[in-house]
Structure formats: C-alpha cells, structure tokens
Amino acid sequence: MRTKNKLRIYSLDEVKDKFIGKVGDSKRDGFEFELQMDILGEIIKTARLKNNLTQEKLGQRIGVKKAQISKLEKGSTNITIGTIKKVFSALNTKISFSVNL
C-alpha cells in the first residue's frame, strides 16, 4: 500500500527566514526596506493617477522635477518623511504613520 506524502504549508515569514534571513539580519532588513519602498512608490503612483496628474504636474506641485517623482514611484530612492508629507498633501490624500517599538 502506498502512502501519499503530506504537503507542508509554510508561512511567508518562514520562507523569508529560510531564504532571506531572520528578522534583524542585515540582508533581511534590506529586503524589507526595499519592499516597503516599492509599496510606497505604488501607493504614490496610484494616488497620482487617481488625481489625474502626470509626474511632471505632481513634481511642480511639490517643487521637484519629473525624474524625482519617477524615482519615488519606482521605489529607487530614499524618501524622507517630509517629502512623503509633501507628496500626499499635493495629492489631497491623508496619511498616518505608525511606530512600533
């Protein structure tokens, strides 16, 4: 009689622990930071499009060039809290920050 192998289901955190590193590891922290920047960039792009703005128009509203908005949306640049506030203010979008210690 043949028995079937049981499939084990892994959580996303387990997979990240195994393949990227444990929480607190520099490789894992870098991965998480890049992921957060990508997500923030997508949120900015979505809000910009919802407001029917081009990258150039949004840049004009906050005093930067189109290329800087493109970088923000691609998550390819560090962004300060001040810049985040300016961007979302220009997009008439409310934001909030949460800090967990």
Write the layout of secondary structure elements.
Layout (H helix, E strand, L loop, with lengths): L11 H8 L6 H25 L4 H8 L3 H9 L6 H10 L11
Helix pairs in contact: 2-4, 3-4
Describe the structure.
The protein is mostly helical. Helices cover 59% and strands 0% of the residues. It is built from 5 helices and no strands. It has one domain (15-88): 434 Repressor (Amino-terminal Domain) (Orthogonal Bundle). It has helices at residues 12-19, 26-50, 55-62, 66-74, 81-90.
**Could you give a short account of the major beta sheet?**
none
Order of helices and strands: HHHHH
Do you know the CATH architecture?
A: Orthogonal Bundle
Q: Class by helix and strand content?
A: mainly alpha
CATH superfamily: lambda repressor-like DNA-binding domains
Number of domains: 1
Please give the CATH class. Answer: Mainly Alpha
Averaged pLDDT: 90
Radius of gyration: 19 Å
> What do we call the CATH topology?
434 Repressor (Amino-terminal Domain)
Shape: elongated
Approximately what portion of the residues adopt beta-strand conformation?
under 5%
Helix content: 55-70%
- Tally the helices: 5
Oligomer: single chain
User: What is the straight-line distance between the termini?
Assistant: 54 Å
* Poorly predicted sequence stretches spanning 5 or more consecutive residues: none
Give a concise summary.
With 101 residues, the chain is mostly helical. Helix content is 59%, strand content 0%.
List keywords for this structure.
single chain, mainly alpha, 434 Repressor (Amino-terminal Domain), 59% helix
